[in-house]
Every structure is written in structure tokens, then in C-alpha cells.
């Protein structure tokens, strides 16, 4: 049964780890993200070590029979501690979370040390990847080993179920609430595994066996672990999807602002910001879509400033009258009028005809001196929508060197 379910759980664990791997360098100061990545990694390793072919391979390479047992179960204890670290940092102030996280990690290390010592006192004679627990059920040293492991495992799952359910009720994010409740459900399902393993110890004391419950134990353990991983994966994938959506929106905005940018650049190429690409780190930053969009917004704002002294109040009044007749109002009206002002201002600058000071006006949509470039992308896009599509004109030679 475990060789059927473990690979499925391994795939889920690897998927979760890969989803977080890209964010770890950017969030290296966020212990919760690091701990959650460790949960996926350790979970994947615990499943990998327990699969029969890997079990036999490790026995052969490391020269210790059944070495997969302490390796896999050590990973389980470590991931239980890391899960508590995640919950602690998500639900407690940083100073409290730091103190509690250290306590959980210290407890996990102590249990793992105890497991290694007890395993070293066992006398395994042959590889038992399928029925290891049943094979050693009558060994007093293994009873101590199993009791320590199951006690720590069960306590961890109880705290996990309770902590996730309570934190889910306090979270304002739907993905986090759903994910934490799935984690709590998975922790409860694993109680079936714990019950059978505790029964193995008790049955051994009475000279009986729970061999018929092995499939039930592995099913509860794997299904519970899978639900737990999926629960942690829900907010992780949701965050990744939001990041992808945000990046896509940035790319789309950058493309849609091209026409507006070209309108200014064709007449005033001096708006283009110079960039020093000598530093490789800076070059990577300059290639990011976030920086490109920020730069385009700044250059458009510079273009607006260049033609501001060519804005004629008559153009604005006639444009407002025309667009009001079309049924436009509010911000959409301001965006349409601003687009007309931009075209008229560019044309006036080309001919050098400035309006009389008494007829100077401002843009209809907003004051570019007070707006923040990254906060008004939508306003710039609204103006760009009302700008007629046109091919870019070659910048004037005498202005290209400005």
C-alpha cells in the first residue's frame, strides 16, 4: 500500500517545494516561508526514503540495514516541528514567534537524537521495507523507539490540527482559511496511523499482532499527509497565481502604454531615461518588467511636463463639449479630454506656437506633479485607450541629442 500511495504524496511534496523555491531568496528574512519550504522538502524526503527501491538502495549504499527507518521518520519529526514554526510566525508577534519556534525546533532535534540512539541499539538482520514494524513488534528496544516516535508524532499532529483550525478562523484570506482547514483535516486523519502504531506496541506486549491493520495504517498516514500537503499548497499556489496575474498585468500595461509613450518620444526623445548597464546586478534589475513599467510611466510623465506649456484652454473646452455630447463623464471624460490635449500640445510644440498665458490650462485628468508614477498606471492606460493608433515618427535630429 505504501509503495502505491507514497509516490503520489512525493509528487505533491515536490510540487509544493518547487512553488516556493523561487521565492526563498526574495523572502530569506521570512522564517515562515523558509519553514514551509522545509515542510515540503522534508515530507518529500520521508516518502522517498520509504519507497521499497530507495529503501534497498540506501541499505546497500550506506551499509546499514533498514537505515531508511530513522531517516524517513527523522524527516517526519523535523517537518512536524517546521509546521509549528509556520503556524507560530503566522499567528504570533515576531518576538513571541521566534521564542516558540526555537522551542519547537529544539524539541524536534531532541526527539530525532533519541530515535537515532534507540535505532543504533536495534539488531536488524535483514531489510524489511514492507513489514518493518511487524517484524520488530516483539523487540523491547523497538517498542521504546516506536513509542517515542508515535508519541512525538501524535502530539505534533494534535497541536497542528488545533493550531490550524484556530488560525483559519482568524484569517481574512480565503485561500489561507481553506488551506489551514485542509491541513487540520489531514492531521486528524493521521490519527488512524498513530492508533494502529500504538496498538502495535500494546499488541506486542500481549503476544498478538495487528498485521491485518497495516494497510489501514498506511492509508491513514498517506492520505492524511497528502491532505496536509495540499492544504499547505493551497495558499502557496494562490500566491503564485496572483504573482503570475500581476506580472501578466504589468506586461499588458507596458504594451498598452507604448502608443502613448511613442506619441511623446517621437516629438521629445529627451524624455528617454539614460541607463548605465555596467553593473550586472543593475542590468538584471533593468530587465525586469516592474522596472520597465515604472520607467515608462516616468517617461510619459516627463512628456506631459514637456508639453504642459502648450496646453490651450480652448482645446480643452471644445474637447469636453464634444465628449460630453458622446455621453462620457467623470474619469472617462477626463481621460478622453487629456488624450486630445496631448495630441494638440504635441502639434503646438512642433510648430512652436504657444498659447497666450491667459489661455494656458492644465491636463483634465490629474496634476502630474502630485501623482505617483506606479499609483496611476490605470489613469495612464485610460488616456492611452483614447489615443488614436499611429506609427511612431522619427524623432527630430536636433532634439534627439538633447
Distance between the termini: 74 Å
Order of helices and strands: HHHHHHHHHHHHHHHHH
Radius of gyration: 32 Å
Which class best fits the helix and strand makeup?
mainly alpha
Outline the structure in words.
The protein is mainly alpha-helical. The chain contains 17 helices and no strands. Helix 1 runs antiparallel to helix 2, helix 5 runs antiparallel to helix 7 and helix 8 runs antiparallel to helix 10. The radius of gyration is 32 Å and the shape is elongated. The termini are far apart. The C terminus is likely disordered.
Summarize, please:
The protein has 17 helices and no strands.
Notable traits:
402 residues, mainly alpha, 74% helix, 0% strand, elongated, disordered C terminus
Secondary structure layout:
Blueprint: H1 2-21, H2 31-50, H3 52-62, H4 68-91, H5 94-120, H6 132-135, H7 140-170, H8 174-189, H9 191-205, H10 214-256, H11 258-267, H12 280-287, H13 289-307, H14 313-325, H15 330-351, H16 377-385, H17 397-400
Helix pairs in contact: 1-2, 1-10, 2-4, 4-5, 4-7, 5-7, 7-8, 7-9, 8-10, 9-10, 10-13, 11-13, 14-15, 15-16
Amino acid at each position: 500500500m505504501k509503495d502505491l500511495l507514497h509516490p503520489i504524496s512525493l509528487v505533491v511534496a515536490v510540487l509544493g517545494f518547487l512553488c516556493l523555491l523561487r521565492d526563498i531568496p526574495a523572502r530569506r528574512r521570512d522564517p515562515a516561508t523558509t519553514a514551509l519550504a522545509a515542510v515540503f522538502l522534508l515530507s518529500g524526503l520521508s516518502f522517498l526514503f520509504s519507497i521499497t527501491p530507495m529503501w534497498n538502495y540506501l541499505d546497500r549504499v550506506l551499509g546499514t540495514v533498514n537505515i531508511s527507518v530513522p531517516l524517513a521518520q527523522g524527516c517526519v519529526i523535523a517537518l512536524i516541528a517546521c509546521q509549528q514554526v509556520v503556524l507560530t510566525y503566522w499567528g504570533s508577534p515576531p518576538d513571541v514567534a521566534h521564542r516558540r519556534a526555537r522551542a519547537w525546533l529544539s524539541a524536534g532535534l531532541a526527539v530525532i537524537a533519541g530515535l537515532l540512539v534507540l535505532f543504533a541499539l536495534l539488531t536488524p538482520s535483514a531489510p524489511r521495507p514492507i513489514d518493518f514494524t511487524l517484524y520488530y513488534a516483539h523487540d523491547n528496544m523497538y517498542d521504546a523507539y516506536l513509542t517515542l516516535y508515535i508519541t512525538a508524532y501524535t502530539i505534533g499532529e494534535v497541536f497542528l490540527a488545533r493550531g490550524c483550525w484556530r488560525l483559519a478562523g482568524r484569517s481574512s484570506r480565503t485561500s489561507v482559511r481553506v488551506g489551514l482547514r485542509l491541513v487540520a483535516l489531514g492531521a486528524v486523519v493521521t490519527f488512524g496511523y498513530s492508533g494502529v502504531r500504538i496498538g502495535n506496541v500494546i499488541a506486542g506486549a500481549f503476544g498478538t499482532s495487528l498485521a491485518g491493520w497495516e494497510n489501514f495504517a498506511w492509508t491513514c498516514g498517506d492520505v492524511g499527509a497528502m491532505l496536509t500537503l495540499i492544504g499547505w499548497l493551497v495558499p502557496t499556489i494562490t500566491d503564485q497565481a496572483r504573482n503570475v496575474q500581476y506580472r501578466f498585468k504589468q506586461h499588458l500595461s507596458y504594451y498598452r502604454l507604448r502608443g502613448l509613450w511613442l506619441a511623446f518620444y517621437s516629438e521629445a526623445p529627451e524624455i528617454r531615461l539614460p541607463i548605465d548597464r555596467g553593473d550586472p546586478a543593475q542590468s538584471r534589475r533593468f530587465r525586469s518588467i516592474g522596472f520597465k513599467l515604472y520607467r515608462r510611466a516616468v517617461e510619459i510623465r516627463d512628456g506631459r511636463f514637456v508639453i504642459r506649456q502648450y496646453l490651450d484652454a480652448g482645446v480643452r473646452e471644445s474637447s469636453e463639449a464634444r465628449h460630453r455630447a458622446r455621453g462620457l463623464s467623470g474619469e472617462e471624460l477626463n481621460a478622453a479630454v487629456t488624450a486630445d490635449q496631448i495630441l494638440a500640445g504635441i502639434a503646438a510644440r512642433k510648430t512652436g506656437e504657444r498659447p497666450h498665458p491667459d489661455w494656458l490650462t492644465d491636463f483634465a485628468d490629474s496634476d502630474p506633479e502630485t501623482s505617483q508614477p506606479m499609483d496611476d498606471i490605470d489613469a495612464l492606460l485610460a488616456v492611452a485607450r483614447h489615443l488614436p493608433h499611429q506609427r511612431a515618427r522619427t524623432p527630430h535630429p536636433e532634439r534627439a541629442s538633447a
